[in-house]
Design brief:
Helix content: 40-55%
CATH architecture of the largest domain: 3-Layer(aba) Sandwich
Distance between the termini: 50 Å
CATH class of the largest domain: Alpha Beta
Strand order of the largest sheet: 2-1-3-4-5-11
Number of strands: 12
Radius of gyration: 25 Å
CATH topology of the largest domain: Rossmann fold
CATH superfamily of the largest domain: Response regulator
Strand content: 15-25%
Number of helices: 14
Length: 347
C-alpha cells in the first residue's frame, strides 16, 4: 500500500504553498482560476482524500447527524416493524457516509435525550406530528432540521422531502375503479402525520368527484390487528365495500386476514391495495397491489439537503416531492385483468 497522500504532498507536486492548496480545494481565497484548477487536477491525480474529522473540527462541527421518527404515544411502533423506515434509514446512512458524516438513530421513546447527548450538526425528523418534543428541542438550539413529511403546523421556511400523497391516493383509486371497483373504502390510522391527512383528503376529494360514497374506517393501531379490526367493521356493514385501500402495508395485511375470516375472496369479491411497498406485501397471499413511495430516494434527498444546510450551501427549493407509482399485483387484478398480468410477466 502506498504512502497516504496529504495536503503537503499535493502542495509539493503542484509547486504551491499548503495555504494555496487549502484555498483551492475548499473554494476559499482569491486564486486565479488556472491555479485552482491545477491544484485540483494534481490532488485528483495523486488520489488525495480530505481528512473529514479535521475538516469538521475546523468548521466547528462534530460530523454527526441524527434521525428521529416522530410518533404519537399511544400509536408507538418499532422502526424495524416497517420496511419503509428500514429502507429510508439505510439509504440515508449511506448518503451521509458518502459525504463524510455519520448518522445516529434517536429512539422515539427517548429522542430528546439522545439528541441532547450527541449534539448533532443537524437532524432529520420522519413523519413529524404536531407538538413533537424533538422538533421543539432542535428548534430551540438552532440545529438545522429537514423533515420527511411536512410539519402540519410549520411554515414555508421549513425544509422537507415528501411524496404527493394526494396524487398517490388518486392513482390507486383510479386503478381500483379501472378494474371494476365501485364501493371503495379507506382504512387509515389515527395519526396526525401529514401523510395521513393527505391520504384522507385525497380519498375524500376523489370520492366527491366520482360520486362515490365515502367509507372510512380508522384503525386503532398501525399493526395487522388494527387493519383486521377496521376491515371487519366495513365487511360486516350493511353495504360492504368491494375494494379497500389501506394507508399502510401492515394494515392491508390485516384487511386480507379479515377477508379470509369472513370468507370473502380476494380479488374476486374484494380488491385490496396498500400504501407503501414491502417484502411482506409482496409475500402476502395474494400479493398486494401497493403505492411505492421510494423511501430510498427520500432518505438520500433528505440527507443531501441537510448537509448542504449544515455546510452553509444555499438550498433551493426548500420543499421536494419524490414521485410515487402504483405497483399492480394479484390483490386487485381479477378475472381477465389478472390473466393479462400473468401473461405479461411470462413474456
Amino acid at each position: 500500500m502506498g504512502a497516504k497522500i496529504g495536503i503537503k504532498e499535493v502542495a509539493a507536486a503542484a509547486g504551491v504553498s499548503i495555504t494555496t492548496v487549502s484555498h483551492a480545494l475548499n473554494d476559499k481565497g482569491r486564486l486565479p482560476d488556472g491555479t485552482r484548477d491545477r491544484v485540483r487536477e494534481v490532488a485528483e491525480r495523486l488520489g488525495y482524500r480530505p481528512n473529514v474529522n479535521a475538516r469538521n473540527l475546523a468548521g466547528g462541527r462534530s460530523g454527526l447527524l441524527a434521525l428521529a421518527v416522530s410518533q404519537v404515544e399511544d400509536l408507538a411502533f418499532q422502526l424495524g416493524d416497517f420496511d419503509y423506515f428500514a429502507s429510508l434509514i439505510r439509504y440515508a446512512t449511506t448518503a451521509a457516509l458518502d459525504r463524510g458524516y455519520a448518522l445516529a438513530i434517536a429512539p422515539a421513546a427517548e429522542a430528546e435525550g439522545t439528541l441532547h447527548k450527541i449534539s448533532p450538526d443537524g437532524a432529520i425528523v420522519v413523519d413529524p406530528v404536531p407538538g413533537d418534543s424533538s422538533l421543539a428541542y432542535l428548534r430551540q438550539r438552532g440545529i438545522p432540521i429537514v423533515t420527511t413529511g411536512r410539519v402540519l403546523d410549520g411554515s414555508d421556511e421549513d425544509y422537507w422531502v415528501d411524496n404527493d400523497h394526494v396524487a398517490g391516493v388518486r392513482g390507486v383509486l383510479d386503478h381500483l375503479a379501472a378494474v371494476g371497483a365501485k364501493r371503495i373504502a379507506l382504512v387509515a390510522p389515527r395519526s396526525f402525520a401529514s401523510y395521513v391527512v393527505d391520504v384522507r383528503a385525497g380519498y375524500s376529494g376523489w370520492c366527491a368527484e366520482h360520486g362515490i360514497e365515502e367509507r372510512v374506517a380508522t384503525a386503532p393501531t398501525v399493526t395487522e390487528d388494527g387493519g383486521f379490526e377496521a376491515a371487519i367493521s366495513l365487511l360486516d356493514g350493511p353495504d360492504p365495500p368491494d375494494a379497500i385501500y389501506a394507508a399502510l402495508d401492515r394494515l392491508a395485511i390485516g384487511v386480507l386476514l379479515a377477508a379470509n375470516a369472513r370468507n370473502v375472496d380476494v380479488p374476486g369479491r374484494l380488491r385490496v391495495a396498500a400504501c407503501t411497498d414491502s417484502v411482506a406485501a409482496q409475500a402476502a397471499r395474494p400479493p398486494l397491489t401497493t403505492l411505492g413511495l421510494n423511501p430510498e430516494r427520500i432518505g438520500r434527498e433528505a440527507i443531501g439537503m441537510l448537509i448542504d444546510i449544515v455546510e452553509g450551501v444555499e438550498v433551493e427549493p426548500r420543499h421536494r416531492i419524490v414521485p410515487t407509482r402504483v405497483i399492480e399485483r394479484e390483490s386487485t387484478l381479477g378475472g381477465a385483468a389478472q390473466e393479462r398480468a400473468r401473461l405479461d410477466s411470462n413474456r
